[in-house]
Amino acid sequence: MSHVIKEQGKFKYLEEGEGEVIVILHGLFGALSNFQDLFDHFKGKYKVVIPMLPLYEMPVLLTGVKSLAKYVNEFVDTMGYDNVTLLGNSLGGHVSLVYYSNWPDKIHSIVLTGSSGLYENAFGNQYPRKGDKEYIREKTAKTFYDPELATDELIDEVADTIGDRNKLVRILKLAKSAIRHNMASELPKFKIPVCLIWGKQDIVTPPEVAEEFHKLLPDSELFWIDKCGHAPMMEHPKEFNELLSPWLDRIRG
């Protein structure tokens, strides 16, 4: 993304626009560029913010979904935001759910797309050995309906991340933390509107996961995008924005 990354204390983030606040939370391998179209589309009507989550900077023993939620809460407090809409993809969606479970008074609504929190099928039980790019390419391509979106640049980025032992240890910790922290028993207690936007061909968090979220969340709406995998806002940004815009207009009033 060509936007300027701002800093406030220990926090790094993107922030543009004015009005009600939308905080976007990226996933485990999610880059800020994944949200380029979404960011540019909504910054004309809302204050859109993307904090850079400290996925690889947390102490190993504290690395997990709860710690990320605590970090986001500290960020929201530091920035003085209130009545926030959280929008999370994959792990970012899970962090959004944990955040609301602990600090519900600060959150107005949630948007989930390809969110973990109930079930996910990512790399499986183990990660590839350093340099095993074909395996990385195969698994990364499964993130999308169109495997061409798994570009050489993206493959290299994932390979570099996995090839760094310190990062890999934290990735494994985060993945295990997400699996352990199942939200099924907490979701019926949610008292805010939740928008679910899901790829019909998502094999990381399959359609039945979206349907289970929809069943468990008392005030949720579920929207589907066809020919779409685990990152709808990246694979079909125009359709994603067209689904989200009227929902936000309606619930934000």
| Major sheet description | 8 strands, mixed
Q: What name does the CATH topology carry?
A: Rossmann fold
Summing up helix and strand content along with how strands pair, one would put the structural category as: alpha/beta
CATH superfamily: Alpha/Beta hydrolase fold, catalytic domain
Radius of gyration: 17 Å
- Report mean pLDDT, rounded to a whole number: 89
Q: Any idea what the shape is?
A: globular
Q: Return the CATH class.
A: Alpha Beta
Assembly state (oligomeric)? single chain
Series of secondary-structure elements, N-terminal to C-terminal: EEEHEHEHEHHHEHEHH
The main sheet orders its strands as 1-2-4-3-5-6-7-8
Helical segment count:
9
Query: Distance N terminus to C terminus?
Result: 30 Å
How many beta-strand runs?
8
Bin the helical content: 25-40%
Task: Show unreliable segments.
Answer: none
CATH architecture heading = 3-Layer(aba) Sandwich
Percentage of residues in strands: 15-25%
Describe this structure as you would to a colleague:
It is a single chain. The chain contains nine helices and eight strands. With 253 residues, the chain is an alpha/beta fold. Strands 1-2-4-3-5-6-7-8 form an eight-stranded mixed sheet, with helices on both faces.
